[in-house]
Design a protein that fits this description.
Elements: E1 7-8, E2 13-14, H1 25-33, E3 41-45, H2 51-59, E4 65-70, H3 73-84, E5 92-96, E6 107-112, H4 126-132, H5 139-149, E7 150-161, H6 162-171, E8 178-188, E9 195-201, E10 208-215, H7 223-229
Parallel strand pairs: 3-4, 3-6, 4-5, 6-7, 8-10
Antiparallel strand pairs: 1-2, 7-9, 8-9
């Protein structure tokens, strides 16, 4: 952990006390996994604290521009502060806006760690409820935004619970988006996958299937997880 309520990585620091959703494994996995090498324009939908946007900035070339769209005004303000304090303030832009209203030139890569709790689930914090209830951004709204904002050869990278991945794949073809990579995330050896790293693209593609194990059977981080995240974690 870093100063105040935040989280320090090797090259940047995230303050997240004014954000409903804190730094967590889902966002870190997506930021480390999403295919950024060929992207020059990137969109982070629901950027929150700006974590994923800054991870992608660290991994990308100097000519890559990243926009983070965030509906919550407090989270958007804190994301701007995190970006300003980072080494990539000239390449990352935070926009306070609902993605349904957002207009921009097409993006090579769109990433999202979207809301996934069903409407009606109880939260004491209204901002956290908004950030995690699917009522504000259900799979249809998410895929519609991706269809509208994605370049012809672009890709969409998501981290979602396993049931939501199935829901997305049932409807994605309606938005001209098709599965190209499905990576199951297993928290510990012997357990079922509870998250999926999902990559979608335009047109039919052969899908690559695989898995990422976070903790090995003996309790330490797996080699694959270390390989993905060691550029970011201070003690890895």
């Amino acid at each position: 952990m870093g100063r105040n309520s935040g989280f320090s990585f090797k090259q940047f620091h995230i303050e997240h006390d004014r954000c409903a959703m804190k730094v967590g494994t889902d966002g870190i996995l997506l930021g480390a996994w999403a295919p950024i090498a060929e992207a020059r324009r990137v969109l982070d939908i629901g950027t929150g604290s700006g974590l994923i946007a800054l991870m992608l900035a660290q991994r990308s070339t100097i000519d890559c521009h990243i926009d983070g769209v965030e509906l919550d005004k407090d989270a958007a303000a804190q994301a701007r502060e995190n970006v300003t304090a980072s080494p990539w303030a000239n390449r990352v832009n935070i926009i306070k806006c609902a993605i349904q209203d957002y207009q921009a030139a097409p993006y090579d890569l769109i990433v999202a760690n979207p809301p996934y709790f069903v409407a009606g689930q109880s939260f004491s914090d209204p901002a956290r409820a908004l950030a995690r209830h699917t009522g504000g951004l259900d799979p249809h709204a998410l895929l519609s935004a991706c269809q509208r904002l994605l370049a012809p050869d672009g890709q969409v990278a998501l981290v979602v619970p396993t049931p939501m991945a199935d829901d997305i794949l049932c409807i994605s073809s309606n938005y001209d988006l098709f599965e190209s990579c499905y990576t199951a995330v297993i928290t510990r050896a012997g357990k079922a996958a509870n998250r999926v790293l999902l990559l979608l693209g335009r047109g039919l593609n052969r899908c690559e299937r695989g898995e990422i194990l976070i903790h090995s059977a003996v309790g330490g981080y797996s080699d694959r997880y270390i390989q993905l995240t060691h550029p970011f974690y201070l003690k890895m």
